[in-house]
Amino acid sequence: MLAAFGDDSNTLSVFDLRKIDAGSVPLAKSSDLGSPVLSVDFDFSGAFVAAGTAAGSISVTHVKKWTQAATLEDASGKSICGLAFSKDAPGSFLAAASLDKTLAFYAVA
């Protein structure tokens, strides 16, 4: 089981909760996204993690390979404050909410 979070140091971090040892959780992977990370979501299969930034970009990363699968730019250029993958994989889409009250949908199949 994995957990992910982002912070104002521009970092997306993923932790492997299966390897908890004496109260500490080892860092599995991390990436500098160049802007504070405001929202994070895994796809239904757990294969991909998306991170939305204050700069209005969305990074979709293949978790196992830790390679960037896609970079999406929000049309409004506003901070991405919410992300959600659809539950119907494959053929998924990603919904992104930004601070200007827009909701965008991206195909991520």
- What share of the residues does DSSP label as strand, in percent? over 45%
According to CATH, what is the class? Mainly Beta
Largest sheet, in brief, is:
4 strands, antiparallel
What share of residues is helical? under 10%
What is the typical, i.e. mean, pLDDT? Answer: 85
Describe this structure in words.
By secondary structure, the protein is an all-beta fold. It has one domain (2-107): Methylamine Dehydrogenase, Chain H (7 Propeller). Helix content is 0%, strand content 54%. The strands form 3 sheets. A 4-stranded antiparallel sheet has the order 4-5-6-7, with no helix packed on it. A 3-stranded antiparallel sheet has the order 1-2-3, with no helix packed on it. A hairpin with a 4-residue loop joins strand 9 and strand 10 (103-107).
How do the strands and helices of this protein lay out in sequence?
Layout: E1 2-6, E2 11-16, E3 27-32, E4 37-42, E5 48-53, E6 57-62, E7 67-73, E8 80-85, E9 93-98, E10 103-107
Antiparallel strand pairs: 1-2, 2-3, 4-5, 5-6, 6-7, 8-9, 9-10
Attribute tags:
0% helix, 4-stranded antiparallel beta sheet, 109 residues, 3-stranded antiparallel beta sheet, mainly beta, 10 strands, Methylamine Dehydrogenase, Chain H
In short:
The protein has a single domain, classed as Methylamine Dehydrogenase, Chain H, CATH 2.130.10. Helices cover 0% and strands 54% of the residues. The chain has strands at residues 2-6, 11-16, 27-32, 37-42, 48-53, 57-62, 67-73, 80-85, 93-98, 103-107.
